[in-house]
Amino acid sequence: MIGGDLSQRARHGELQRGRAFANLCRETAPVLVIPGNHDVQWWWRPLIPFGKDAVYQKYRSYFGADLTPSLTIPGSAVIASALTAHGVAWGSLTARLRDIAVKGHLPKREMERVQSIFAKADPTLPRVLVMHHNLLRGDMSKRMGLARWKRAQRRVVDAAPMSCSAGTTTRKAPRCWRAALPFRLPARSRPGRAAGVPFPSTSSRSIPLRCR
User: Fold this and answer.
1) What global pTM score does this model have?
2) How high is the pLDDT of residue 46?
3) What is the pLDDT of residue 139?
4) What pLDDT, on a 0 to 100 scale, did the predictor assign at position 181?
5) CA 131, 132, 133, 134 torsion: positive or negative?
């Protein structure tokens, strides 16, 4: 799972290297890629709630038209993604100027779509939610990734994923990320279900990476 921010300013060279990295990962395992706030060209349609295709046009030219892919690994997990990187959008605005084009938001329709994916999946498989912005306060930044984060947290809880992964922060077990929420939750885990999400083993072949 690649949770976005494959680039810094959505430049062609950055996205090309991001695609090369994703293709390298595909040599050993299935890959799911979603955009982050750095991957969208927010300056094309700031604060315009319709006609958002221009914002994602460059990203789509490298990673495909689907901004919210899903992935089912037989016998292992069903993985659904939610789009939180909307550029400069009304739902992502806060009272802080520094949050412009940085924070995201989680629309209700996104989680309704995720819930439908989970509902159609094999009920014995663990459910994994992937999104770019962190659902909980960042361990290092101490900041929330989403505007209207309390509402977003409740929407995620309603979808009942067993694991929630973000491009900046990952919480593997339901007990971990749910315990950090600022409100009490009903018990949703089924008896006998594992808290972690098992992933299929991949090749032991090492992949050399060069960093500059």
Assistant:
1) 0.75
2) 80
3) 77
4) 54
5) positive
